[in-house]
Fold this sequence. Notes:
Rossmann fold, 2 domains
Amino acid sequence: xxxxxxxxxxxxxxxxxxxxxxxxxxxxxxxxxxxxxxxxxxxxxxxxxxxxxxxxxxxxxxxxxxxxxxxxxxxxxxxxxxxxxxxxxxxxxxxxxxxxxxxxxxxxxxxxxxxxxxxxxxxxxxxxxxxxxxxxxxxxxxxxxxxxxxxxxxxxxxxxxxxxxxxxxxxxxxxxxxxxxxxxxxxxxxxxxxxxxxxxxxxxxxxxxxxxxxxxxxxxxxxxxxxxxxxxxxxxxxxxxxxxxxxxxxxxxxxxxxxxxxxxxxxxxxxxxxxxxxxxxxxxxxxxxxxxxxxxxxxxxxxxxxxxxxxxxxxxxxxxxxxxxxxxxxxxxxxxxxxxxxxxxxxxxxxxxxxxxxxxxxxxxxxxxxxxxxxxxxxxxxxxxxxxxxxxxxxxxxxxxxxxxxxxxxxxxxxxxxxxxxxxxxxxxxxxxxxxxxxxxxxxxxxxxxxxxxxxxxxxxxxxxxxxxxxxxxxxxxxxxxxxxxxxxxxxxxxxxxxxx
Length: 501
Ligand code: ADP
Ligand code: GLC
């Protein structure tokens, strides 16, 4: 089974969020389970410089505004995973954030950059660029690769099947209809049954309409996105394709996130030897200038500061957190008003609130290890990884009951018992704190509940043990992807959803 994964980010070379963590782990796990998996990545400087043993296998062009596109083949460092690179300096050779210019606006030619990426993904999968390899399955991730299924669909006899994974429906990749003629697709695809959406072109919709199978990154989000509340306008399209959509929970790469073996930490620890966690907490409090109080509940946030993440709710709930003697450490980048709000709170409460607004992988590990609670009060959350990292580090997640957060955290007061335990006498499987409504009041109440439980040392210890013993490794999820690929290989070629297209 030959599978080409196409994605815009990969940890540790280039990361803006959880997509990179997924691409840094899942393809390698699938490969270790026996599939012939390869990757296609865009030639952003950090990726081009990070891949090893790169050789040019072909060049094409002019195309998509670039004089030439080069397809290069190399390897992901530290693994035996083959990675193809779409090298096109005209499109990708720009420093910093892969999608945004220096002012934080989308690059105006994003449609062209990622159309080129989707086009190359389709043709590479078909076997046109590397004479020694073609794919049975093209697995596309997020809107960046949304046009690839359309290019495959446009081929009258393509034998390549496609899977499109939604990591975040809120980012869809719009473009003006006038630009469509640059994309080398038949005008008939630019219809409401195709990739047109409210007078614009839409990469995400293209993926949703033209891929053979759709997945998203948690079972609960798969249900949510078929409703107007979470569908970002595409719930109608998704409902139509409901029978082709499944939710497969992301995993954790425990080689990267493991408190027993984490090079970023001042001390290691495990569920059976927790002393190191206290060392991590004390070191964090000292370096952040917080009160050196081992019994002050320490809350952490490691997050993009976007509307999705509910950081504004936390800002509103912060005075209550501080009043109750708790501490907050926050690492995030994003909306200016949130950065300013947390900076002001840190200035007002230097012994209890600390905030940094940069991207710092090592600091993220130290914070997750040091804290007692990791806060993820999201408005919506396709999967969320930081709550799962928190679980492994004995840092109890406090989350809103949405998406992957609902699928991975069991509330302290939930009456859920370990299967086969015989019931109440064994205690619950509680691993964290879950609240319902996206309001500061509801968040405050959950924070108060967490602080209350924290005072009960035995109960907290039990919850830490529950959390640390949860296994969210990639192996189980990878098997679900493999089953999905297998089902595609035996099913007949798909008819277009829209017969007019
Ligand atoms: P999303 O992909 O929506 O941002 P996830 O929880 O899936 O959310 O993944 C976020 C990833 O980005 C995690 O690995 C988290 O540790 C990391 N991260 C977020 N902000 C920062 C930051 N400022 N510094 C370092 N890592 C960060
Ligand atoms: C997105 C989502 C996040 C998910 C990640 C990886 O960025 O916002 O919830 O964990 O993708 O799938």
